[in-house]
Amino acid sequence: MSLLTQTPTQGEHTHSAATMVPDASRAERVSSFDVAAFVVPTGREEEWRFTPVDRLGTFFRDEATGAHLDWTETLPEGVTTSTISVADWQALGVPTPQDRAAAVAAAHSGGVGVVDVPAEAELTEPVRIRLTGSEQDLVHGHLLVRVGRFAKATVVLEHTGVADYSEMLTVLTGDGADVTVVSVQEWDDRSHHLAQHDVVVGRDARVRHIAVTLGGGVVRVNTNASYAGPGGSFEGLGVYFSDAGQHLEHRLFVDHEAPHCRSNVEYKGALQGETARTVWVGDVLIRAAAEGTDTYELNRNLILTDGARADSVPNLEIETGEIEGAGHASATGRFDDEQLFYLMARGIREDEARRLVVRGFFASVVARIGVPEVQEHLMEAIERELAGEAAA
Amino acid sequence: MSTLEIKDLHVSVDTEEGAKEILRGVTLTINSGETHAIMGPNGSGKSTLAYSIAGHPKYTVTSGSVTLDGEDVLEMSVDERARAGLFLAMQYPVEVPGVTVSNFLRTAKTAVDGEAPKLRHWVKDVKDAMGNLRMDPAFAERNVNEGFSGGEKKRHEILQMELLKPKMAVLDETDSGLDVDALRVVSEGVNRVKEGTDVGVLLITHYTRILRYITPDHVHVFVDGRIAEQGGAELADRLEAEGYDRFLPAGAGA
Ligand SMILES: Nc1ncnc2c1ncn2[C@@H]1O[C@H](COP(=O)(O)OP(=O)(O)OP(=O)(O)O)[C@@H](O)[C@H]1O
Ligand SMILES: [Mg+2]
């Protein structure tokens, strides 16, 4: 067993918050289908303490709105979509909402949009669902992605436009499935998006969840991974780029209950502009039964300009000694002027040198995405974000 | 024919106790094709001189001048200096994660030449230069200086010198940390560039052994932020035999 904890602290890194975790264990957090089980958050609660809840009041109202986003789908052969009731969704034994916004979204969505990939299907093209908002009315969105046993599939969810979007996404994967779910947030900067993504990793399945968050005023994606049986592997990858005025938050909770499962989390973010804000919380719980677990999580933030703030909080709870390995690393650093000097000393102009360094920073995680069109799009988007800085 | 002219250069760094003067009046002229060795004890200001020529923001020039063919180098940004033909092989090359050597070299070459190199020639030039420096071709796909050994970093610096073909190259302790074989390979690299391009070289070193492979036309002994003595190659031999002691205050040692 190896136990690594590496938390170098540079620049704007804030880690102090980690010491005031009130939960005795991450497992004890309230979770329920019942909205009333959750109070309206004030921002003092553990799970809301980084989030600007004052900008999100409508997300906590226990009522349906009837609003929806524009839905465009591209379905490879064999993949089907349908709608089921919330009751039927619950009856599938899905993970429960973990906070009030998720409970409200699940209760008031009016139905669950289902994407089904049949067992043993081998998709060569991604399933693509494009959700576009055009007004600020609160939308409760509720999705279920179901991938049958031994199927191989990539599902790309894209979010654009103006919206207040409260989302509940459940991903259920069968035994031995090989699944990649990509959620891209490229909202207009007026938009708000709170999401709970539950990923249930089937026995011996390999599931990758990738969050790409570039646009939106407040975006908070909570990704929870759990294992339906032994031998499963979860990879959580994330890339975010926060500009002035943006609050981009990613929370992960990997719940190791089954033995011999693996998880690996890598999130990288850049911040530029005063008031740019990011939060990353990575909780990993290895329960007593989860012998042979192997887990590692990493978060790195690159602060490009003064006034930006990144919080990074890894938490590792281990209830068994019989594990393969568990570790985490978290670091937040300023843009490295020595790297800039080195490149410029070879004749490279400052803006291009900065671009090389930032691209380089993201390169490792982008390369792991493994969906070429998403990778290319992301690199282009990062270039645009950087160019935005030059114009500002 | 180019000339790098350094006149009465004073340079300080910011420290917690305020500005600290490190270079205290350096005057030195280097012409194309010449090799000047600067030798001096640790902390005498050799790297400060190198970085000041390259334009590192940490160093403040308080007086004096640096010109390249009459152009004011101190007015130029770091990248402008490189494009004007100055090159600094660093004592401690910087790691740039996620940027491959091949991408870096091509970007630098394009910047220095003002146009992208012809692909076919370029690939061959890089391959040949790496071969000459006994660098495994796999280095091209590794990230710049990341995980390189000390010797590999130095080879990579000279590789850049070979490919970028500067007018004036400052080599800051390129020899330190090299074993004998690597020292020979790296020295051969420098000599190849000297023969091929008539580059002027300012070779900064603590030890004389590299001067067995690269013959200096002039040797300058650098002590306490200024040149304390100058001579030809024979001065290096004297330093080898006597050390720096006679230049230092009694008891300081080097
Ligand atoms: N930021 C700084 N604060 C204080 N002193 C500094 C700073 N930077 C450099 N110095 C001092 O300036 C002096 C010259 O340093 P420099 O690196 O130029 O020496 P050097 O001759 O290259 O030494 P070496 O042989 O060890 O490479 C040293 O005494 C060093 O400690
Ligand atoms: Mg030095």
From TrEMBL, chain A:
InterPro entries noted in UniProt: Fe-S_cluster_assembly_SufBD, SUF_FeS_clus_asmbl_SufBD_core, SUF_FeS_clus_asmbl_SufBD_sf, SUF_FeS_clus_asmbl_SufD
Superkingdom of this protein's organism: Bacteria
Span list, region Disordered: 1-22
Domain SUF system FeS cluster assembly SufBD core: 134-361
Ranges annotated as biased composition (Polar residues): 1-11
Protein family: Belongs to the iron-sulfur cluster assembly SufBD family.
Protein name: Fe-S cluster assembly protein SufD
Native organism: Phycicoccus avicenniae
From TrEMBL, chain B:
Keyword ATP-binding (UniProt): yes
UniProt KW keywords: ATP-binding, Nucleotide-binding
InterPro entries found in the cross-reference section: AAA+_ATPase, ABC_transporter-like_ATP-bd, FeS-cluster_ATPase_SufC, P-loop_NTPase
One Pfam entry name: ABC_tran
Gene Ontology molecular function: ATP binding; ATP hydrolysis activity
Domain of life according to the entry: Bacteria
CDD domains in the cross-refs: ABC_FeS_Assembly
Domain annotation ABC transporter: ranges: 4-249
SUPFAM superfamilies per the UniProt record, alphabetical: P-loop containing nucleoside triphosphate hydrolases
Record-linked SMART domains: AAA
Similarity annotation: Belongs to the ABC transporter superfamily. Ycf16 family.
Entries under NCBIfam families matching the protein: sufC (TIGR01978)
Protein name: Fe-S cluster assembly ATPase SufC
Organism from which the protein derives: Phycicoccus avicenniae
